[in-house]
């Protein structure tokens, strides 16, 4: 068995995921990237549109690629923000609005759960006896999953679905068997935030909040966000161990506490 350690990931083409892939590569992990565009840090790239259900994806190609590799973890970094504003009177616009919610649910939840269920046997084979950390599955979640800003409720619903799926996973597997991690990166200046500002009605509360945060330089740089996330995911710490099945707030270095 090779001593190379592999990370499987999505969302590495842009934003936080791109910076995360860079740090992972800098730390000598090998990367299998599932996505629509390469980032340049991957050792294996498998073209994958997360809008598609698993039966329409190259899952067989992925399974073949995983054979014999030591998998340290899986990171679902991909995500989309659905359309936020809708006119009550325009039927065509309403239709596009709900189509966008369905697509966000597919990318932010279903595809993540489907991929994890299919690759679990490879991750759980414990073929990496030398690893300093328990194998993990992680996804980039959001505070909106538990406490959405006004306007982000439906996006939050897609993130809640995935968070609940991770909670269920954490009940199926003990922390020292498979660590199940949900990470809120913080508010980070990426295409996702810029698109909300540019494409949503300017009177939406969240648009005003983002604009103000940019003005006050309160949005995090994706590189810093990725470093926080890397340190959390790849360090065998009490914080990581306590986060099994919970929501970790990477910007605050704390676990979300329900009131
Ligand atoms: N930015 C924030 O403030 C913030 C806050 C809380 C949570 N998050 C979460 O953090 C994650 C990363 O966000 P980000 O801000 O870095 O977003 P981003 O810059 O918009 O990047 C999104 C990533 O998801 C990928 N993706 C989207 N749809 C896909 C599809 N159908 N098939 C394959 N890949 C797809 C994109 O790939 P393509 O290049 O192929 O589109 C891209 O790599 C998301 O889950 C987001 O919900 C972000």
UniProtKB/TrEMBL annotation:
UniProt cross-references to Gene3D superfamilies, sorted A to Z: NAD(P)-binding Rossmann-like Domain
InterPro entries: Biopterin_syn/organic_redct, NAD(P)-bd_dom_sf, SDR_fam
GO terms assigned for molecular function: sepiapterin reductase (NADP+) activity
RNA-binding keyword on record: no
Record Pfam families: adh_short
An individual GO BP term: tetrahydrobiopterin biosynthetic process
Places the protein is found: Cytoplasm
Keywords: Cytoplasm, NADP, Oxidoreductase
Superkingdom, taxonomy of origin: Bacteria
GO cellular component terms listed in the entry, alphabetical order: cytoplasm
Predominant cellular place of this UniProt entry's protein: cytoplasm
The keyword Cytoplasm is assigned to this record: yes
Protein name in UniProt: SDR family NAD(P)-dependent oxidoreductase
